[in-house]
Amino acid sequence: MNLDALMAAQHLFPYFNMLNGPTYVKLVKDFWVRVEVYDMDAAKVEELQAVARDPSLRGKTSKEMGLEPFRQTEIRSAVMGIPITITEEVIAKACRVAPSGRFLWNISRKHPLLESFTSVVLKGNPATKLVDIDGHHRMLLKFMTECFFQKGGGSDQPSVDDKLVLYFLAAFDKINLPRYLMHHLCWAIKEGIRGKRKQIPCGRLFSKIFTQGKLLETLRKNKLAFDKSLRIITRKIINGKTLQNMKIIKKFSPSEKDLKEFAVQTELMKDFPPISKERNPEVLAELIAAYAKESGGIIPNEAPLRVRGKRAKTDDGSEVAGVQTKKPKMDKSEATNPDSIPATAPKRKRGKGESSMIKDAASEAYEKNWDAEAEEPKAKKTHLTREEIVSPMFVMTPEMTKHADERIKKMLEEQKKKKEDLKAARDARLKSIGLDGCDEYYTQKMAEVKQIANKRQ
């Protein structure tokens, strides 16, 4: 199978060369636990917070408020105390792919290009399953799910937007890969903050950015990052064995020319954009020293970039994935020796009389336990104190608290007034049909009924 023409049309050869390299797991995890997306919504939240602190800023621009004007979407975090900012330009330089081409997202299901997807990828049959499409298109879908948009799930049901990207790749129509990667990372960060995602995507891309942005060099100069402590890994390679597992080819014969895992750091680019606004070596050393003093150095967590299922805790509190208890296997000599096998009581069926006796004994025991629980004084319920949840993007000021109290008071007064207006309208309607004073009449009758009931008791 030859995909050179498809990859050349997308200019993706430098990107795939970049993917074959080391991934610094601990740096990526330290970056991901503090990551946040700075987009138009986050910029509006900053302006609202500034107005809440100082109401005189209402109606002014972000520059007049003392804030940085919003220019582009950014991914912000910190690694070992050093603030990091990743933009679409940074991703494009790390991927060595020009930020140009087609980019469409959040399209409707009736988009005309989806008909082109059906005709090109599905050969005109909408009922065709993805496992039955052409081998070249299946490999493009494999690239999407493993190399571009790592979602952690299967590729059997791609979204409408994914189908459109697959059509662009199959139709030799160049896509804007840096923008697609930026959009996918922002989505993954927001999903992770909501607790709906456990996988860290594009770990190799982050590692490349840390290397070319001279973050790794700065940490090594300050003796906080070593090859053993960084936990370097390399991802699997898509080769002929993958095609055989996908049943695209029947037999795979390995060769010495096959691509091998590459874990050596590449040379630094001269025109790579900065990823940290702080460039003073002394200030960076102080930030790293403060982080090392607070956390004791590099993060000790040894968990992988992908969390699979639930994790059971060991005696020392650490988490272990997929822990299952199994019965120890017997030695062959013990298995053949009947004396070494523990004796078990033989099973037998219960008769009808025995079953009724067991039911009577169980009901008697239940009644005794019920009486004992009734005599014992019930313990008071302990109310758990809820911890205060503080959002990193929102700070409650005294002015905001005062404004909230006034708003609540106003809402209560409006509800009270609305209730009084409804009662007045009801009384006016009852008066118009000759039922004025019916409430007093029904109250008097209810009192008489209660009095008669009490006499009879």
State which percent range the strand residues make up: 5-15%
Provide the spatial order of strands within the biggest beta sheet: 2-3-4
Please state the CA-atom Rg, rounded to the nearest Å: 34 Å
Low-confidence stretches: 298-304, 306-327, 332-336, 340-345
Order of helices and strands: HHEHEHEEHHHHHHHHEHHEEHHHH
Average pLDDT figure = 77
Q: For the record, give the distance between the C-alpha atoms at the N and C termini, rounded to a whole number.
A: 95 Å
- Tell me the structural class: mainly alpha
Query: In total, how many beta strands?
Result: 7
- Characterize the main sheet: 3 strands, antiparallel
* Tally of contiguous helical segments: 18
Helix content percent band:
40-55%
What spatial form do the alpha-carbon principal axes imply? Answer: extended
